[in-house]
Amino acid sequence: MNTTPKYIPKILIVDDRPANLVAMKQMLKHLEAELVCAGSGNEALTLALTGEHFALCLLDVMMPVMDGFETAELLRQNETTSINCRAIILVNPSIPLLLRHY
Fold this sequence. Notes:
Layout: E1 10-14, H1 18-28, E2 34-38, H2 41-49, E3 54-60, H3 68-77, H4 79-84, E4 85-91
Parallel strand pairs: 1-2, 1-3, 3-4
Helix pairs in contact: 2-3
C-alpha cells in the first residue's frame, strides 16, 4: 500500500480583471491542479515570496501598475521567487500568439 500523498501542482493565474480570472479558472478546471488567483503583479510576487510553490504561472500581459512582462522579470530575478514559480507563460487574449521566454 502506497501512503505517499498525491502531489497536486499549483497554477498561479494573474490578471487584473476578475472576469478573466473566472474564465481562466473555467478553462483549467479539468486539470488536477490547485488554481490560485492574483489580481495584480504585486499580489503574485507576494504569493511567490511567502513560500507558495507554483508549477506554472499564467500572467496577463496588460495590467496596470506592473504588467506581465515586468512581473515575469521580477519573478526571475529573485532567487526565492524564481524557484517558487518554475514556468511562466504570458497571456493576452487580444494577441493571437505571444511568445517570450522567461
